Write a sequence for this structure.
């Protein structure tokens, strides 16, 4: 099993913990943000961190690029999305509508950087 750097794990968990209720982000957005700072990692590594260490974070706010929660947690994630009022698509099964509910790091800063 691949060993994960403790600093990288903490960076992922910290960033996922900052996703506010009612919003969601993707593995790719989180990976890219951390890659800018560390020069390493990708969406699959973020997924690995979440599967091993993400139980105490709002893991349901992290989805794939299609807005889906894959695997055995999909039913629980859907219930939590509905509970939080995260915008969903009309697909069957529903997915997170990333256009309306997507979150990117920096949105939670008091004085966000210019884009």
């Amino acid at each position: 099993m691949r060993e994960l750097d403790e600093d990288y794990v903490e960076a992922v968990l910290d960033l996922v913990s900052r996703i506010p209720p009612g919003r969601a982000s993707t593995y790719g957005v989180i990976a890219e943000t951390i890659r800018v700072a560390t020069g390493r990692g990708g969406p699959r590594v973020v997924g690995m961190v979440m599967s091993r260490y993400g139980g105490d974070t709002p893991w349901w706010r992290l989805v794939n690029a299609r807005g889906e929660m894959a695997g055995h947690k999909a039913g629980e994630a859907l219930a939590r999305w509905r509970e939080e009022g995260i915008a969903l698509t009309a697909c069957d099964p529903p997915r997170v509508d990333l256009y309306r509910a997507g979150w990117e790091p920096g949105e939670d800063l008091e004085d966000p950087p210019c884009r």
